[in-house]
Specification:
Elements: E1 5-9, H1 15-24, E2 28-32, H2 35-38, E3 43-46, H3 51-60, H4 64-72, E4 77-80, H5 82-87, E5 88-91, E6 104-109, E7 120-124, E8 134-138, E9 143-147, E10 152-157, E11 160-166, E12 169-172, H6 183-195
Parallel strand pairs: 1-2, 1-3, 3-4, 4-12, 5-6
Antiparallel strand pairs: 6-9, 7-8, 10-11, 11-12
Length: 201
């Protein structure tokens, strides 16, 4: 049976909710905190949280370089909110010491939709997700200012890009893991499943 093992970067943020959503989408879900745990997964979720804190902890735990290497060589990765920022090639307003993993040719703006007290929910039509729009939870959410030619825009809200894909890398400004709707996670699980080699099954 082709059941992928998908990790959730468990340094900070809403890790538990992603683990639940991935399990509901028929993946084996594991927290990842060390390089050896990263080496054992078929794909990885970069959760919401505080992007500067996550990037600094990834460096501290020795995960940043192995993570960059795996993303460069095609490991499927999905970033939500802060995770979207981590997957960007460039941040318009980076905090001091903030690094990114890269993987998606995009420029992002942190906290673009406003501060914590301006958080909101909105229905978002996401390409590749069948049925009704996805209920997007936007919490201090970034948006994508611009994308390169190889990036597919999957969704927009209020004229701003909020979901993208480039190859095996997927990212959303919003938090689908907080709604009980697991269709975006199922989209990612399908992407991971399709990427697995026959030798890994």
């Amino acid at each position: 049976m082709n059941t992928p093992v998908i990790g959730v970067l468990a340094l900070q943020g809403d890790v538990r909710e992603h683990l639940i959503a991935l399990a509901a989408a028929d993946a084996v879900a594991r927290p990842v905190r060390r390089p050896e745990e990263l080496a054992e997964v078929d794909g990885l979720v970069l959760p919401g949280g505080e992007s500067t804190t996550i990037s600094k902890l990834a460096v501290l735990f020795g995960l940043m370089e192995p993570l960059r290497a795996r993303v460069r060589t095609g490991m499927p990765v999905y970033g939500t909110c802060a995770g979207l920022i981590l997957l960007a090639e460039k941040i318009l307003d980076p905090r001091s010491g903030q690094e990114t993993v890269g993987g998606i040719d995009m420029i992002v703006r942190r906290n673009a939709f406003g501060r914590q007290n301006e958080s909101f929910e909105a229905a978002v039509d996401v390409k590749g997700v069948d049925g009704d729009p996805v209920e997007g939870v936007f919490i201090r959410a970034p948006w994508v200012e611009s994308v390169g030619a190889d990036v597919q825009v999957l969704a927009e809200h209020d004229g701003h890009i909020v979901a993208v894909r480039q190859g095996n890398a997927l990212a959303t400004s919003f938090h689908p893991e907080l709604t009980g709707d697991h269709r975006v996670h199922a989209l990612f699980v399908d992407l991971v499943r399709a990427n697995r080699t026959p030798e890994s099954l």
